[in-house]
Amino acid sequence: MGRPVPPGSDPLSVSALLLAILLLAGLGLWLGRRIALAAAGGEPRRLHSLPMAYGWHAAVMTAVPALLALGLWLAVQPIVVNESLLAHFPSDTAEDVDARTLAMADVRRVAGGLDVAVERGVLEEDGSGRVALDPATLRDALASVGVALGADPSPEVILAAQDYREMARRGAVGRTVLCLFLAAAGLLYALRATTPDFRARNRVEAVARALLGAASGVAILTTVGIVLSLLSESLRFFTLYPWQDFFFGLTWSPSFGGGSELGVLPLLWGTLYITLISMIVAVPIGLFAAIYLAEYASRRTRAVVKPLIEVIAGIPTVVFGIFALVTVGPALRDWIAEPLGLGTSGSSVMTAGLVIGILNIPFISSLADDIINAVPQSLRDGALGLGATRSETIRQVVLPAALPGIMGAVLMAASRAIGETMIVVMGAGAAAKMDLNPFEAMTTITVKIVGQLTGDTAFDSAETLVAFALGITLFVLTLGLNILALWIVRRYREQYE
């Protein structure tokens, strides 16, 4: 049986509350429009805004405050509950991060098991809602409902679990009452404000701008959080391992017993090598496909070919990895590598590069197609009017005008290739080395990040923390490529505006 759902975090209760809020918002959408039309005597021209704007105002005033309150409650409640429950444990447990985490995990596991046991009738609650139990038989009772405990829970854990269930119930009731009250209050306020002179459109647009700004802020803060987390852990790594050996070391050989050599250059070489081969494959094919679709293909042909190309973008990367492992790798080994004496393994830089290149073809093709179609038709007409052929027009007019966007698409595709993991794992192997032979197995930074974070070493060891140093290196590399792409687009686009 799976792990029991902690009390008070039942997704059904939250889902039911969300559904209730959305239903009230839908009611507000309908009532707002009806009341606005009724106030105008059925004449929309007497209203300041369109009738639907009044409905949207009522829906927004109903849903937004309640949803904000729900999100804030779900974020704050676990913190408050955990801090309250830590009072049951000794001070050394509360001060130790690892011990505190383990203790709270035991509390949630026991509390969830108590909920399941009560629901199935194995245990009973007393008049106060607490479970009447014998600590000696608690482990057996929970085991009978599929909740396995490694040892008999301590009295502190049992008491904290009882309080956890009670606080979760009170929190669920308070959450429901607060959110429904805010939704109802917002609905009543919006309906009372619905008059012919009310500027509903302005209010709705203001709320929309605020929500869009908040979404942008969340995106920015997420990026900042990622960077700060990588930096903090990377600094911890560089206190354990010299930065000179990391950035300039030529050997990658982590050792769980100490004495590791963690030079990033072999990983960086494999990453750039595989990326280069993938771009050699993806750029010509993707660009030529885009030129054909934009300039030569008929509407019927374009309607068939373009979706077929873009289907590739919807295939999961693990499927491409299987394709590399089963088909591409053995084919390259049997037909090229072994006859030429270049290698005997199906896992190689060439295998991963070819498959990643195929993966990037629809990315480049779709972007380049849109960019080429955005070139003004007047430029084509002018060139044709001066006597240029179709191919000359494309080569000397269309492509130079679309070059900034095409270069941006190419560099963004390169960033995507740098960050690919699954195809590299299944197609290129895990050997960290520097070699010019494309039919040799190599690996990339992303593969080693996964490997170091999924090992058995302690989290505070250099062998684990190196994953964060690799992550910040990869982040800087891809960020630089994206900045270069944006600079090229902005620098040269002005010539054609």
Walk me through this protein's architecture.
This protein has two domains: 11-198, no CATH class; 247-496, MetI-like (MetI-like fold, Orthogonal Bundle). Mean pLDDT is 84; it is low at 1-12. The chain contains 17 helices and four strands. The N and C termini lie far apart (63 Å). It is mainly alpha-helical. It is flat and about 85 Å long. Helix content is 73%, strand content 2%. The strands form two sheets. The chain has a two-stranded antiparallel sheet. It has a two-stranded antiparallel ribbon with strand order 3-4. Helix 2 packs parallel to helix 7.
pLDDT under 50 segments (min length 5)?
1-12
CATH top level label of the largest domain: Mainly Alpha
Share of helix, binned: over 70%
- When the domains are counted, the total is 2
Q: Tell me the series of helices and strands, N- to C-terminal.
A: HHHHEEHHHHEEHHHHHHHHH
First-residue to last-residue Cα separation: 63 Å
Q: Kindly estimate the percentage of residues that lie in beta strands according to DSSP.
A: under 5%
Overall CATH architecture of the largest domain: Orthogonal Bundle
CATH H-tier superfamily of the largest domain: MetI-like
How many DSSP-defined strands? Answer: 4
- Which structural category do the helix and sheet elements fall into? mainly alpha
What is the approximate shape? flat
Number of helices: 17
The profile of the biggest β sheet is: 2 strands, antiparallel
- Cα radius of gyration in angstroms: 31 Å
What do we call the CATH topology of the largest domain?
A: MetI-like fold
Strand order of the largest sheet: 1-2
**Please, what is the average pLDDT?**
84
